[in-house]
Amino acid sequence: MPAARESLLDAAGAALSARPWPAVTMVEVAAAAGVSRQTLYNEFGGKAGLGRALIRREADRYLDGVDRALSAPAADAERLAAVAEWTVRAARARPLVRALLTGAWDPRLPAAGRAPGPGELARAVRDRAAGALAPREDARRCELVVRLALSYVIAPGEEPDAREMLRLLSDPTRTAGDR
Questions:
Q1: Residue 108: helix, strand or coil by DSSP?
Q2: Measured between alpha carbons, how far is 56 from 61 in angstroms, rounded to an integer?
Q3: Rounded CA separation 72/82 (Å)
Q4: Most buried among 54, 79, 120, 150, by the most CB within 10 A?
Q5: In a 10 Å sphere around its CB, with 0-12 CB exposed, 13-18 middle and 19+ buried, how is residue 73 labelled?
Q6: Separation of alpha carbons 49 and 178, rounded Å
Q7: How far, in Å, CA of 44 to CA of 15, rounded?
Q8: Using CB atoms within 10 A of its CB, is residue 162 exposed (0-12), middle (13-18) or buried (19+)?
């Protein structure tokens, strides 16, 4: 029943984008997915299970985006910059991704439950990046780039220039004005 599961998660995500999670009903999710309420309950057990599955899917989609950025045909620094840019874009566009990356759960979202925490996701990105890039891109540098990108999520400002961030990380004596 993978197709029904995805349809239900799509319907739940659409409902969540329209209103707070406490106002989303199982009846409307089932109807929007074109399945019976019983199918929804069989698949997720209840609204809490549906919320957990929606959160898990958002985490997986975020990590899939990280993997796409890391697999691009580009230099290591460019791929690492793409991971930073993806992190900021995904968190700004998707409230569940933002909550997963920051640990700041809005009451309008499903309850976090056993969702991966910010540290767990940062370590997953660090490990994926360190494994995908040349040996000189050590895990510490990869984690630093992820945490720097998260700072733009937590304290929003002008869209970061990830490539400039990487240049600064590579040569800390250089300032942003030294182009």
A1: coil
A2: 9
A3: 9
A4: 54
A5: exposed
A6: 51
A7: 16
A8: buried
DSSP letters spanning 33-101: HTS-HHHHHHHHSSHHHHHHHHHHHHHHHHHHHHHHHHHSSS-HHHHHHHHHHHHHHHHHH-HHHHHHH
38 contacts: CB under 8 Å, gap ≥ 6: none
How far apart CA 162 and CA 121 sit, in angstroms, is: 19
| pLDDT single digits (tens) 24-76 | 999 999 999 999 999 999 999 999 999 999 999 999 999 999 999 999 898 88
**Residue linked to tokens 């599955």:** 53
Residue 21 predicted with pLDDT over 50: yes
pTM of the model: 0.84
Which pLDDT tens digit goes with each residue over 104-140? Answer: 888 899 987 778 888 888 889 888 888 888 776 677 7
What distance in Å separates the CA atoms of residue 79 and residue 132, rounded to the nearest whole number? 9
Residue 99 near residue 109 (C-beta atoms within 8 A): yes
Catalogue the long-range contacts made by 48-52 (C-beta closer than 8 Å, 24 or more residues apart): 48/110, 48/111, 48/113, 50/8, 50/9, 50/12, 50/26, 50/110, 51/12, 51/21, 51/110, 51/111, 51/113, 52/110, 52/113, 52/114, 52/115
Query: Does 161 or 75 have the greater pLDDT score?
Result: 75
